[in-house]
């Protein structure tokens, strides 16, 4: 059973930075796709960023130039560096992995709150 555990959420003022990290356990196989999603109150869950085993990645338009995703396959971890945060980035952030897409397994979520 794959388990994803996120860490690094918290509260920050606008313009600040946070780094999220997620570790996958319960598998001896590195997920092909690792990504981050977020869900703000009253809104649908949306993709933030994902990265494939070959380094191919993509970002939501709203975070391009501010967020950076990375992975360490030796540790089965995926990170999300978030810079220049705005109140619109406030949400619960979820780590997700999979081999066909990035939505097969999900973490429990970590809260990110950005105050103005």
Layout of secondary structure:
Elements: E1 3-7, E2 10-13, E3 18-25, E4 33-39, E5 46-52, E6 57-59, E7 67-72, E8 77-82, E9 91-98, E10 105-106, E11 110-115
Parallel strand pairs: 2-11
Antiparallel strand pairs: 1-3, 3-8, 4-5, 4-9, 5-6, 7-8, 9-10, 9-11
Computed CA radius of gyration, to the nearest angstrom: 13 Å
Q: Helix/strand-derived class?
A: mainly beta
Number of strands: 11
Strand residues, percent = over 45%
In whole angstroms, the N-to-C terminal distance is: 40 Å
Which descriptor suits the 3D outline? Answer: globular
Helix content: under 10%
Give me the number of helical elements: 0
Low-pLDDT runs: none
List the helices and strands in order: EEEEEEEEEEE
**Average pLDDT:** 96
Main sheet: strands, sense, barrel: 7 strands, mixed
């Amino acid at each position: 059973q794959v388990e994803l555990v996120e860490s690094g959420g918290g509260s920050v003022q606008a313009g600040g930075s946070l780094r999220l990290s997620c570790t996958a356990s319960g598998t001896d196989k590195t997920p092909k796709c690792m990504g981050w999603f977020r869900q703000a109150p009253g809104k649908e869950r949306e993709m933030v960023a994902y990265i494939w085993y070959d380094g191919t990645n993509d970002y939501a338009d709203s975070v391009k130039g501010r967020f950076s995703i990375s992975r360490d396959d030796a540790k089965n971890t995926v990170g999300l560096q978030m810079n220049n945060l705005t109140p619109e980035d406030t949400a619960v952030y979820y780590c997700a992995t999979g081999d066909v897409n990035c939505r097969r397994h999900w973490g429990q979520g970590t809260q990110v709150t950005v105050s103005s």
